[in-house]
Design goal:
Elements (H helix, E strand, L loop, with lengths): L3 E7 L4 H10 L6 E8 L5 H8 L4 E3 L8 H14 L4 E4 L8 H6 L4 E5 L11 H8 L3 E8 L9 E8 L6 H24 L3 E4 L2 E4 L5 H4 E3 L7
Parallel strand pairs: 1-2, 1-4, 2-3, 4-5, 7-10
Antiparallel strand pairs: 5-6, 6-7, 8-9
Bound molecules: 5-O-phosphono-beta-D-ribofuranosylamine (GRF).
5-O-phosphono-beta-D-ribofuranosylamine binds next to α1, β5 and α6.
Length: 220
C-alpha cells in the first residue's frame, strides 16, 4: 500500500496529533506521518510525538522577524520530507495567504465547533453562552479565511444541562480524536478531495463517512 505522507503542525498539547499517530500504528492505515512541527519549544505535544517515534522539528516563530519568514522555514521543512498533506492540529498561528495557497487542497484543520458557527477561539464557552443545544467539531480544508474553508466532515455533540466549558471540551475532544484520523484516511484513499469552494467525494462515500452524531448521554 502506498501511504500518504502527512505532516502535522502543532502548538501545544498535541492530542489530535496523538490520535493520528495512534491510527498510523495500524499497518492498514493509509498514512505515514513524516514530520511533526511545533512553532513552540517545550510543549507536551513534542514529547508525545517523540513517544510515538515521530520525527519532530521545533520551528520557533519568535526566532523569525516576520510571519512570512517563519512560514518559509516551515514550508522548507515540509517539502524536505516529501509532505503530501499538512494537518493542523491545535496550531495556534494564523497562516499567511502565501503559505495557504501553496498548500491549497493539501492543508486541513480540525476545529472545535460545528462550522460555520463559532469560528476562532473559546468555542465551548461561546456555545454555552449562546445556549446552543448541539455543538461539535468540524474537519475542513484550510483557506485564507480563518476557519472558513470547505467543510469535509462533522461530528455533533449534544450539550447537556450540567455542561461546563470543561466537560463540553472533553466530549468534543473525544469526537475530534475519532473524526480527524477518519478524515485523513478518506483523503489518503482519494475518497475525498478539494474541489475549489467545495469538497468532492467518491460515489461510495456516504453520510456515515461525513456526519457523525454522538449519542445522548445515557443512550450509548
Ligand atoms: C483542539 O480542540 C482543536 O480542535 C483545536 O485546538 C485544540 C487542539 O488540541 N484546533 P490538541 O493540541 O490537539 O490537544
Amino acid at each position: 500500500m502506498t501511504k500518504l505522507k502527512v505532516a502535522i503542525l502543532i502548538s501545544g498539547r498535541g492530542s489530535n496529533m496523538g490520535a493520528l499517530a495512534r491510527a498510523a500504528m495500524d499497518p492498514d492505515y493509509p498514512v505515514e506521518i513524516v514530520l511533526v512541527v511545533s512553532n513552540r519549544p517545550n510543549v507536551a505535544g513534542l514529547d508525545l510525538a517523540i513517544e510515538h517515534g515521530l520525527t519532530v522539528r521545533v520551528i520557533d516563530h519568535t526566532e523569525y522577524d516576520t510571519r512570512r519568514a517563519h512560514e518559509a522555514a516551515v514550508n522548507e521543512a515540509l517539502e524536505a520530507v516529501g509532505t503530501e498533506l499538512v494537518c493542523l492540529a491545535g496550531y495556534m498561528r494564523i497562516l499567511e495567504e502565501e503559505f495557504v495557497n501553496s498548500w491549497k487542497g493539501r492543508l486541513i484543520n480540525i476545529h472545535p465547533s460545528l462550522l460555520p458557527a463559532f469560528r476562532g477561539v473559546d468555542t465551548h464557552e461561546r456555545a454555552l453562552e449562546k445556549g446552543v443545544r448541539i455543538h461539535g467539531c468540524s474537519a475542513h480544508f484550510v483557506t485564507a479565511e480563518l476557519d472558513g474553508g470547505p467543510i469535509i466532515a462533522q461530528a455533533a455533540v449534544p450539550i447537556t444541562p450540567g455542561d461546563t466549558a470543561q466537560t463540553l471540551a472533553e466530549r468534543v475532544l473525544d469526537a475530534e480524536h475519532m473524526l480527524y484520523p477518519h478524515v485523513v484516511a478518506l483523503i489518503a484513499t482519494r475518497k475525498i478531495r478539494w474541489a475549489g469552494q467545495s469538497v468532492a467525494h467518491a460515489r461510495e462515500v456516504g453520510v456515515k463517512d461525513l456526519a457523525f452524531m454522538l449519542p445522548l448521554p445515557g443512550q450509548n
